[in-house]
Amino acid sequence: MSAPKDAAASASSSSSAPKDGAAPSASLSSKDAKAAAKAAKAAKRAAAKGLAVGERQHPPKNEAGTTAGQQAAAAGGQATHQGRGPKESSSAAGAASASSSAPASSGAAAATPSQTLASLASTNASLLQPTQTAAAGPSSSTGTLSSHDLITTVHPPSTSHSTRSTLLTTSLTRSLHPSILQLQQHLASHTLLGSSARAIATLAALRDFIADYKTPRGAVLNRDLVGKLGAQIGGITAARPLGTSAGNAVRYLKYEIGVVPADMGEDEAKNHLISRIDHFVRDRIVLASRVISSHISSKLRSHGDVVVTFARSSVVERCLLDAWQVEGKRFEVICVSGETFDEGPRMAEALLSKGIPTSCVPLTALGSVMPRASLVLLGTASLLADGALYSRAGTATVAMVANRRKVPVIVCCETYKFSERVRLEGVGGNERADGHDDDLEDGSSTPSNLTKLNLVYDLTPAKYITAVASEVGLSGPESVAILLRDYKSILFGS
């Protein structure tokens, strides 16, 4: 350290010699003076970094192989840079140099590289250990979600965390209506399946709650009832998320409660709300499925069609039964069964009981039966604004195979299942069903940290869908956004 100081001192004294009136032979030319000044500055910087003159500093690397400059850039400029311009600090070497010479926020002296890394680690641990913190949340540098992050957003099955008796005990402490408690048990045990069935059951339970509701003294019905209704809906979502169908039904009910006149009597208001619930179920679900059935029947020939279905959709089942019994169409049905809830065999059993020739195949045999198909009918849990289909897991596979074989794919969906949302992927916010693989339950060699991931839904892009059949008519999947725009007040009551 003394050699650089001596060099700096000698350069400083020699540059000031002409001002002190020293002999001309001892003075330096202007070029030599500039060179000496640069050497002095370089010596001072090297001394501050603990390096010899001319020695280059190598940025320290952490376990992940990233330099301090790259970490500082990923931190979004948490450390204050000085000395270099913004152009130099944008590079990795300049950022490393600036971070090593950055002062503390309190105005202390410049820190060493090790002190700077320690400060960064204390303020943002993800900089030095990105692989350990990636599983806890989205990456700080890219802002994207890893596969583990997406899986953590999946709603787990209720029975995996608590038994139904525990759910019942918890619900009783929340003063839930008995009909809500009964609905909870069906949802948690997955004995109530299908988006239409869940929507009808949800409205029926809320209908019973409204019938037993009493307005407190001094309160207004349309204001107090909405708050009380929120607690009941919270009890339902504790068992299973509402989904688009039940969510839109609840949205419609809240709108009807909000427009009830304040001067309307309690009994009259309750009867009005109950009638609105009955009208919603009749018009938007029951009659809508009949209209869809007539649209599908017009696409079936009198004889010889082979229709492929997946899982069990109440609308698709109604379309096939009406075409066979009412319209007299003669066709064959192939029910494809997925891994979730074994709905395919139930669909086949229901059709066989009505005399419709039906066979059931697993999803793995789809490629062998699709060449025979003339039409694919699919149900849905939700039809998104961009035309994508959010339905039972395995639907996307059926639609893609049919598209490859040039088989038309028609989605049967009532308009109350239309969603204003758009999904970029089908994992985030999905639900996880209880698997039925006994090997993972009883296998002694199964790792303890192995978890089954049996998703309930998947996402089918709109390009694999030929048409959408709703009570509005047959249209392309791109019509969803138009219908939501033009018929929003009719569809959702707002």
From TrEMBL:
Gene3D superfamilies: Translation initiation factor eif-2b, domain 2. One of its GO terms (molecular function) is translation initiation factor activity. InterPro entries: IF-2B-related (IPR000649), IF_2B-like_C (IPR042529), NagB/RpiA_transferase-like (IPR037171). Signal peptide: none annotated. Residues 1-40, 64-80, 89-110, 152-166 have a biased composition (Low complexity). Residues 130-150 have a biased composition (Polar residues). It comes from the Eukaryota. Residues 1-110, 130-166 are annotated as: Disordered. Keywords: Cytoplasm, Initiation factor, Protein biosynthesis, Transferase. It is found in: Cytoplasm, Cytosol. It holds the Pfam family IF-2B. GO terms for cellular component: cytosol. SUPFAM superfamilies: NagB/RpiA/CoA transferase-like (SSF100950). Component of the translation initiation factor 2B (eIF2B) complex which is a heterodecamer of two sets of five different subunits: alpha, beta, gamma, delta and epsilon. Subunits alpha, beta and delta comprise a regulatory subcomplex and subunits epsilon and gamma comprise a catalytic subcomplex. Within the complex, the hexameric regulatory complex resides at the center, with the two heterodimeric catalytic subcomplexes bound on opposite sides. Belongs to the eIF-2B alpha/beta/delta subunits family. This is Translation initiation factor eIF2B subunit delta. The lineage of its organism: Eukaryota, Fungi, Dikarya, Basidiomycota, Ustilaginomycotina.
